[in-house]
Amino acid sequence: MPGQQALRPATSADLPSVAEIYLAARDAAPMPPTVHPPDEVRAWVNTWDLTRCTVWLALEDGAPIGFAR
After folding, report:
1. What is the pLDDT of residues 39-56, one digit of tens each?
2. 3-state secondary structure (DSSP) of residue 4
3. Superkingdom of the source (predicted)?
């Protein structure tokens, strides 16, 4: 049974989790592998300026499980 689910705007503190979700989704997708190594993807996500773009974070039992940008 699913736990408590919620959506909220992401904060800069959430960006490391967003990067991990992004990498996991890319690994699971039936597409060619990314050309950037995971550390570069993590660094790129951490540069997202949340004052200029909105990122929504999906949570289950308080843990990030997805995002939309």
Report:
1. 999 999 999 999 999 999
2. coil
3. Bacteria
